[in-house]
C-alpha cells in the first residue's frame, strides 16, 4: 500500500460552523514529562516548559513557585550528574501540583558518603525549601524506586 493511499484512509474532519474551537485543557489533565541533559542550561529550558504547560492548563497561579522548583531541582541534578539525562515529571492531582525529578546520581555504599551527599544536596536546595515552605507545600529527596535508578527529588504544591 502506498503512503499516499494510507494517508487517504484517515478521515479528516473539515472545519465548519458546527465545530467549536478547542477548549483549554482541564487542570486534572496536566500530565507531562521531559528529559533534559544534565547541563545547567537545562534549568532555563524546564522553567519555560513549566510556564507554558501551567498556562495552557489554566494554572497560572502556580507558575512562580513551580518554575523555581523545577529549575532548582534540575540545576541541582545537573551539578551532581553532569552530562547524564535528568527526567522531570509535572502532574496536577488532588488539588496539588507535583513535580518529580529523577537524576542518575548513584546511591553511595558508604553511609558517611551518603550523609555528606544528602547534606550537600539539601544545602544546594535552600531556596527551594524556603519557597515550598512559604507555599505550604512539601519536598523531599530519596533513592529512586525501581525501575528508575539514581535519585528522586520531588515537590508538592497544594492549591
Structural write-up:
The chain has 159 residues and is an alpha+beta fold. It has a single domain, classed as Heat Shock Protein 90 (2-Layer Sandwich), CATH 3.30.565.10. 40% of the residues lie in helices and 24% in strands. It has 5 helices and 5 strands; from the N terminus they run αβααββααββ. It has helices spanning 3-8, 42-56, 63-80, 111-124, 126-135; strands at 31-37, 85-93, 96-103, 138-143, 151-158. A 5-stranded antiparallel sheet has the order 1-2-3-5-4, covered by helices on one side. The N and C termini lie far apart (52 Å). The mean pLDDT is 86.
Helix/strand layout:
Blueprint: H1 3-8, E1 31-37, H2 42-56, H3 63-80, E2 85-93, E3 96-103, H4 111-124, H5 126-135, E4 138-143, E5 151-158
Antiparallel strand pairs: 1-2, 2-3, 3-5, 4-5
Helix pairs in contact: 2-3, 3-5
Q: What is the domain total for the residues?
A: 1
Helicity level: 25-40%
The number of helical runs is: 5
Q: What fold name stands as the CATH topology?
A: Heat Shock Protein 90
Q: CATH homologous superfamily? A: Histidine kinase-like ATPase, C-terminal domain
Q: Low-confidence parts, pLDDT < 50 over ≥5 residues?
A: none
Tertiary shape: elongated
Spatial ordering of strands, largest sheet: 1-2-3-5-4
Rg from alpha-carbon coordinates:
20 Å
Which CATH C-level class is it? Answer: Alpha Beta
Which class best fits the helix and strand makeup?
alpha+beta
Average pLDDT over all residues: 86
* Amino-to-carboxy terminus distance: 52 Å
Sheet with the most strands, sense and barrel status: 5 strands, antiparallel
Strand content: 15-25%
Number of strands: 5
Please write the string of helix (H) and strand (E) elements: HEHHEEHHEE
Return the CATH architecture: 2-Layer Sandwich
Regarding quaternary structure, what we see is: single chain
